[in-house]
Amino acid sequence: MTKTRWPELDETATSLRLKHQNHVRSFPEEELDLDHSQWEDIHVITGALKMFFRELPEPLFPFRFFQQFVEAVKIKESKQKTQAVKKLIQQMPKPNQETLKLLFSHLQRVLAFSRKNLMSTQGIGIVFGPTLMWPELDAGNMAVNMIYQNQIVEFILIESREIFNLDRK
Question: What does the DSSP assignment read for 60-114?
Answer without folding.
Answer: SS-GGGHHHHHHHHT-SSHHHHHHHHHHHHHHS-HHHHHHHHHHHHHHHHHHHTH
